[in-house]
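Postdoc handover notes: sequence design on the structure in folder B. Input tokens:
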């Protein structure tokens, strides 16, 4: 084996390792954390999560103005001390709240096993525009958190 072939062999081994790590799931090792979290949240809501296949993805992030941040804090019914702390951090530039939105089109089997095209919008809010700690429980998919979605399933 020539020395020139060594880098190609290392790349091939790395590709096989990534494929083995992901297995047959829809894992995408090149997706960012928030995209992975959103896809996990979507798959939890599917009848056949193992058939999920992403078709298209569009990301958007919007920085919130102070007025938008105040409205968000009011909507969350933040405690007065928490609200005051967060607004002070915003005014001092330590917080830069943002809302990330990921629009995902996907194919997945329905209850009869027929593949159908679905669409979901996943939203995540962060006081600091850092989504590295986001989880499938706290993102909203089509306007509902995981808990809200579970409660809706119980009612039906």
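Designed sequence:
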């Amino acid at each position: 084996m020539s020395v020139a072939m060594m880098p190609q062999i290392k790349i091939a081994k790395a590709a096989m390792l990534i494929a083995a790590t992901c297995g047959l799931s829809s894992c995408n090792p090149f997706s960012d954390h928030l995209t992975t979290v959103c896809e996990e949240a979507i798959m939890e809501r599917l009848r056949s999560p193992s058939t999920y296949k992403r078709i298209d993805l569009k990301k958007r992030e919007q920085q919130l103005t102070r007025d938008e941040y105040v409205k968000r804090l009011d909507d969350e019914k933040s405690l007065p001390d928490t609200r005051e702390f967060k607004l002070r951090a915003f005014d001092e530039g330590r917080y830069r709240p943002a809302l990330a939105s990921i629009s995902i089109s996907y194919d997945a089997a329905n209850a009869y096993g027929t593949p159908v095209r679905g669409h979901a919008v996943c939203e995540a809010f962060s006081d600091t525009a850092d989504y590295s700690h986001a989880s499938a429980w706290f993102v909203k998919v089509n306007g509902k958190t995981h808990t809200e979605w579970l409660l809706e399933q119980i009612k039906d």
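Context for whoever picks this up: Residues 107 and 117 are 4 Å apart (CA to CA). Don't rerun without checking with the PI first.
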